[in-house]
Amino acid sequence: MAFRVGIWCHGARLPPRRTGRPARRRNEPRGPLAPMTTRDARTIFDLALVHANAKGAATAALVKRGGTYVPVSWNTLVDDAYAHARGLLGLGIAPEERVAIISHTRIEWTVLDLAIQAAGAVSVPIYPSNLPEDCAYMADHSDAKYVITEDRAQTEKFLSVRDRLPKVEGLFQIEGDVPDDPWVRPISALVDAGKDVSREAVDERRAGVERDQMFTIIYTSGTTGVPKGVVLTHGNVLYEAEAVHQIDLARPDDIQFFFLPLAHVFARVLQVAWLSQGHVMAYAESMQTIKDNIQETRPTIMAGVPRVYEKFYAAVVEQGESAPGLPGKLFREARRLSEKRGNAEWGGPPLTLAERIEWRILERVVFGKVGAKLQAALGGRMRAMLSGGAPLSRTIAYFFRDAGIPILEGYGLTETSAGSCVNRPDAYKIGTVGPPLPGTEVRIAEDGEILIRGPGVMKCYWKAPEETAAVLEPDGWFHTGDIGEIDAEGFLRITDRKKDLIVTAGGKNVAPQKIENLIAGDPLIARCIVFGDRRKYLSALVTLDPEALASFAKERGLSGTLAELAHHPEVERHVADVIAKANAKLASFETIKRWTILDRDLTIEDGELTPKLSVKRKVVEERYKDLIDAMYDESVPT
To answer: Are 247 and 241 contacting, i.e. CB atoms less than 8 angstroms apart?
Structure first.
């Protein structure tokens, strides 16, 4: 995962620095977490209540209604949460009973989450992209008493697996036509159920909630096996709120643009940051309207997965490189120098004297304009952008930094309540995920695995004591399954997943993620999946970005379907050039000897990606076994 920004690292404080280069530090003992006005909170609902009491009429959120963004006050947010909490009590929900939510990100999701907390219950988020079988498993395994669905389509998923949900007493649907079935009711029926329950009754229930009680069960999508339910407590997420407050990433006068799925722990922590700081949350209408909604809300901070930033990057690069004559030539040269300059920070060859002089000119002439265009595209007020959930390409990070809008990367897992390590705007290193949050410890085991201990570490896996014991030591150290290293200044760098390491036939250990990120950094390439375990050399499956491929074809006057274009000679040459450039940066045993371009990108619907868009390697390896084996056919020359 990722959040980004941190000032404490293994007992040392990082002084301000405004470049992507290593920050200097001086020794200084780490103090306790700074006090906050919400320090007495026992639940995240308490944080919202603090702001409602202090500034009830002020804007808490911006939501799109009737084609226009309108404000929602703190009073309205809290009153709506109380109304739904009263309904839950009216239905007889008991402390720590589970209520599942399946919906895209919207303010109703937040209101219902707050209501569930106020009623002392536990929310179980489910991705709206999950298949009916997955929905049934999560609702049944968590013993959910009720399920809240977004619309008729999500409701139908549960109706189709109703026979597998004997413990679910009913569904409440947020919007749309409700099926004629007594098992399903509109969300207004939940509010009606609480008409005879007082607000004081909710407060009494809420007062009994302790910080070590369950807040949520989040099912990890996982790239293999059955999803595991991660139990996070109110204390886990309140720690994240306190840490975010300490590092001063989000500020009370910010407008945060919000679109990530609330079934993901990263989004839940972003929500916590908002409720902790009391700034304005601007909800996107959908993933498809992000660019328009950013223009309408003009946010100051936002967080996203790398794919979001890759699309902004691809659009700018396409426009710049396709420019005719001198402008296009200058853009290409500026981009080359930006990447070389960044790679020099990681041991690559430095710019020559002539290149340094050239860079000073192009930084102002080219990147000055690029930065202005990017800032305009982001609403004109963007102060900080955060990236998490997957590694961010260093090439893209350098590009945005040189354009004056750094993307800050961080790291964590569902099991660590998302944020564990984070960069910050005035002290960050591109290529790392920053130092630990205040109060979190990170160390590297003998085999290179990253271990984490701190207040954000989960309580357990739901109904899985053996799995919990396998990753959580008695003294609190959590085994992440990731491989990494910590530099002399305490910045963590992730190198790969422990279980994804490839051991070649020659006995070489290879971290595929590094290679995949190098190749997938090209705007045309959507994904690269590297293979080679117990093989003589490495191979790769490559998928193309449909939008970038369409633009690539249009610029060159190529025709055909996307599947046909994937195998056009010009496309194949471009991919070959990208892989050749990547190979030039790798050790000989890490180079890709053969590759195959697939006709289409991988999808969630076909079971090849998790809801977090992580590649299910075993599924892909089994599905494309013939293509992979063909790349090792010794009768075909390499």
So the answer is: no
Mean pLDDT is lowest, of 179-188, 304-313, 361-370, 449-458, for: 304-313
| Beta-sheet pairing, 538-544 with 525-531 | antiparallel
Tokens of 138: 């999560």
How many alpha carbons fall within 13 Å on the CB side of residue 517?
Answer: 17
Q: Crossing angle, helix 306-321 and helix 325-344, to 10 degrees? A: 140
Q: How confident is the model at residue 221 (pLDDT cuts 50, 70, 90)?
A: low
| C-alpha torsion sign, points 133, 138, 142, 145 | negative
Fold topology of 501-630: GMP Synthetase; Chain A, domain 3 (3.30.300)
Element (H, E) at 550: helix 546-556
CATH of region 8-22+304-380+383-498, choose from 2.30.38.10, 2.102.10.10, 3.30.720.200, 2.60.40.740: 2.30.38.10
List pLDDT tens digits, range 507-528. 777 888 889 989 998 999 999 9
SS3 (DSSP) at 607? coil
Over residues 226-270, the pLDDT tens digits come to 789 999 999 999 999 888 778 878 889 999 999 999 999 999 999
CA dist 357 and 240 (Å) reads: 45
pLDDT of residue 302: 95
Q: What is the pTM of this model?
A: 0.81
Q: What share of the chain is helix, strand, coil (3-state, %, to 5)?
A: 40, 20, 40
Task: Tell me the C-alpha to C-alpha distance, in Å, between residue 370 and each of 64, 358, 522, 526.
Answer: 30, 17, 18, 23
Specify the CATH number for 44-209+255-300; select among 1.10.3660.10, 2.30.170.40, 2.40.440.10, 3.40.50.12780.
3.40.50.12780
Q: How far is CA 166 from CA 89, 102, 138, 207, in A?
A: 21, 18, 13, 31
**Average of pLDDT values for 630-634?**
87
Alpha carbons 318 and 333: distance in angstroms, whole number: 14
Confidence at residue 167, expressed as pLDDT on a 0 to 100 scale:
97
Report residue 76's pLDDT band, with 50, 70 and 90 as the boundaries: very high
> Which phi-psi region, left, alpha or beta, contains residue 463 (left: φ > 0; alpha: ψ -120 to 50)?
left
Helix, strand or coil for residue 411?
Answer: strand
Instruction: Reduce the DSSP state of residue 232 to 3 states and report it.
Output: strand
What is the domain partition of the chain in residue ranges? 8-22+304-380+383-498, 44-209+255-300, 501-630
Half-sphere exposure of 508 (CA within 13 A, CB side): 15
CB hemisphere CA count around 403 (13 angstroms): 30
Angle between helix axes 132-141 and 152-160 (nearest 10 degrees) is: 70
